[in-house]
């Protein structure tokens, strides 16, 4: 019944808007006959063009001031993070400059050269010099960006085995993450989803006969020792997922049927990150919002929201089904000692099986 | 052709061959009627697509709050008015599909290629009127199937418009991957057939049916754009068709093209040896050129409208053609920039970064040429002109962020976030939509013989322009904050709590912008009947379509087809009394044709 009423009300609103537009339309019809722009229209719209230019600048400033603390430009927590952030900053500066200049020219010309009866436009069809200028300038700028970008990309994606990275598997399934540590041998045991045996708690399909698999450790939280290079091997058991770790400037898809990889070195522990001024401010702001929301919730008789404390996160960033929006895993970056203590408490694969 | 002309020798006084209601309005083979059919169908699909976007924007702004609108429109998918997570994904998916393919490919290219190619090159009709009719009706059929898919029991396709398998291949992975996805694939297969028939027709028509004197270097830029768009379509759409067919095989006949090693809901599936990455390659081999299939016609329309309304030749005619060709070529070798983090070899990523950033060069040339065309012009601010200037503005804003996304190192961190959503909506969504609106305002007199109300046009443009920036500009910032797209709600991530207010702002702009499209719809439909009667050449334009009579005749020109003596951009040429010289006016004694 409410549904029907809503539709009826919607229809009425639409009819009302329609009628109002019609009245507007009819009111105009008498005063003016031509539907081609007159000098008056040109002037009005010329000024509006300048107004719109101002609007673009204002919205840019508002966005930068209000939402521009740009968490992806500072506070990176991985060794390669700052190079990405630098490149991002350079690109953004170029973009803003070009944007400000070209939008100005476009809208200013639209205002300056608004039509008037009797005026004649300049017959100016071609100029090779100008064309050459605005071909060559982008070529130079882009060449710089391409060289810088490719250098960065190759450095990030190339895995340097001589660093002796710690190998960790990220395992994705609808809708959660698991991490598998390679254990003392730093070699992951063979695995295939065909070997999954839920009854024996072999949930990642490890090859029980493989000696390398015996000391593997499967966890639901990702702990990383600070300063130690990590090489992630990604697997998925069902659909595409994407392992997105924004604070570390890291992302790689998890593809059923193949193993993908991404490596980085965490440089800031969770604790240190919580203590940075930026993060303290951000968390405080978020908690103010949450307190406000909680008041509304309590008034409705629901539970208040928990206080937020910063943690690194692994998010799923490839549409994977109904609960895609809640597929996450906590990442803890800690000192080597803390990490060693934590990993010791975890069960090795051979001990985790149910016989 | 000669038979055609003979026919018309007898029709001079407006007596056509007998046309019934059905042959005139339904199974018409006249390109002008087919253009209108495309436009109306595209408009209806556009209304559906925009309404969907408003619904999912409301969910993002006010997550999981009961909403009577949802209860009314979504039925069982919104128990107690709270939108279900599955239908959220379905709305996102179908919105993308409808807007990209049904509105901005068929609605834009289908309408204006059909209307303008024969009229602007001086042809009686398309090379094959019959294929043209078949093309429209296949498009209509695919639209109907897509709409029907919204009503299947387990829900419409919900795997994102990119329908990556395995999510799209396995009904147990997602409700929408059952009958909904089957219908989606069938609809798209038919759509592709329609698009190919149309494109072949456009290419053949442009190459063979140009009137005397209409050399390729005298073609209006609209035609160049439609022509190259059709060529890109012919090259890339069959690849999507193959991907769709292989996916159908995987889904229904047990093959393993895209699937391997899958364990889902407690059982191992038999698939082995396929790869979802293969699907991504096939999909984006169309998917990226598709961006230009959508955008180039809009740019072509803009070139024509900016030149006409600036009363100036388009600046750098040859450079414009060269940049269209460069964009077309590059567009087929950049698809991998959608796949930097797909697991493909990082070396390939380097190659695609290189080719992708190259596209910025011809794009920059186009933008600067538009701006220079305005310089020292005598700008007539008709609604079509406003939308064209708006297009250049959003094309720049949206295009610039492409140099971040095309850079593989930067893409790692903004891939699949709202930054991408903001980028492509501005550069292809809004820009192409503006191109479509510009085209409608400009050629409405040609289509319907009446004028659109300009005041309503101004209102429509200014509100739309402000709302478009209001929606998509802040979106860059939530993307740079790391918020992934396609999340039903962000409330499980306190990390993003400080972005909630941005999302409310965006949604309010979206609702206002969406509502004001009603002004356009009113203007469009009421002007068909009550609009001011149009003159033959209301915008004082040079191109051939304005030499045809206001009232449509089959075969376009009642008498002989005009011959062409000059390019399309002799505006404000010194030595002429008026500020435009139509293409069919012979050169005066001693007048030189510009060596453009």
UniProtKB/TrEMBL annotation, chain A:
Binds a copper A center. Belongs to the cytochrome c oxidase subunit 2 family. The lineage of its organism: Bacteria, Pseudomonadati, Bacteroidota, Flavobacteriia, Flavobacteriales. It catalyses: 4 Fe(II)-[cytochrome c] + O2 + 8 H(+)(in) = 4 Fe(III)-[cytochrome c] + 2 H2O + 4 H(+)(out). One of its GO terms (molecular function) is copper ion binding. Its EC number is 7.1.1.9. It comes from Neotamlana nanhaiensis. Residues 64-160 form the Cytochrome oxidase subunit II transmembrane region profile domain. This is Cytochrome c oxidase subunit 2. Keywords: Copper, Electron transport, Membrane, Metal-binding, Respiratory chain, Translocase, Transmembrane, Transmembrane helix, Transport. Pfam families: COX2, COX2_TM. Subunits I and II form the functional core of the enzyme complex. Electrons originating in cytochrome c are transferred via heme a and Cu(A) to the binuclear center formed by heme a3 and Cu(B). Its cofactor is Cu cation.
From TrEMBL, chain B:
One of its GO terms (biological process) is aerobic respiration. InterPro entries: Cyt_c_oxase-like_su1_dom, Cyt_c_oxase-like_su1_sf, Cyt_C_Oxase_1, Cyt_c_Oxase_su1_BS. Residues 21-565 form the Cytochrome oxidase subunit I profile domain. The keyword Calcium does not apply. It holds the Pfam family COX1. SUPFAM superfamilies: Cytochrome c oxidase subunit I-like. Keywords: Electron transport, Heme, Iron, Membrane, Metal-binding, Respiratory chain, Transmembrane, Transmembrane helix, Transport. It is found in: Membrane. The chain crosses the membrane at residues 38-60, 87-117, 138-164, 184-209, 221-249, 282-303, 315-335, 347-372, 384-406, 418-444, 456-482, 502-525. GO terms for molecular function: cytochrome-c oxidase activity; heme binding. Gene3D superfamilies: Cytochrome c oxidase-like, subunit I domain. It is a multi-pass membrane protein. The keyword Metal-binding applies. GO terms for cellular component: membrane. Belongs to the heme-copper respiratory oxidase family. This is Cytochrome C oxidase. The lineage of its organism: Bacteria, Pseudomonadati, Bacteroidota, Flavobacteriia, Flavobacteriales.
